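Figure 2 data, in text form.
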Amino acid sequence: MAHVWEFTNQRKLNKKEFIDYFEKKVFKTIRKFEMLPKDKIFRIKKSEDLNTLTLTEVLERKFEVVSSDKQNTSADNLSSVAENIFGNLLDGKFEGVRPNDELIYPLYYHSDAEIELYAKLVGISGRKSSRDKNIQVLFDKFRNKNPDLEINVVKALSQLD
């Protein structure tokens, strides 16, 4: 079976392996950072963006998910978190969201590329998240030397505590 994903360590995953990997990673993040709401209901702001639709699809496999204006769950992911942290750093602020903040971030360790591939493999279509072009130009320059840039930015923030 053809591979659909390759990690920076050259490990390759086929379609089924990638879907399993993606979903397990969401549930591991929830477990590791104790993100399960007390009432076990994930409340997500209604949206047609790809992150929200994908997150809802995955969470509904094990939990109740409702659309709500009073959300306890964010569909922000690794790419948006890293971009936010990097933008803050450029402004001289050493801050950004963390996985154990007030809002729950089950996609905290999932990149745009992972979410887009998962959505494609399971047939989800939605609006892709827009990114800050200036920061993405900088990210592209760094990614040539550091393919794991986004996760490294997030890990660096956690080391500032």
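Caption note: The chain has a mean pLDDT of 91.
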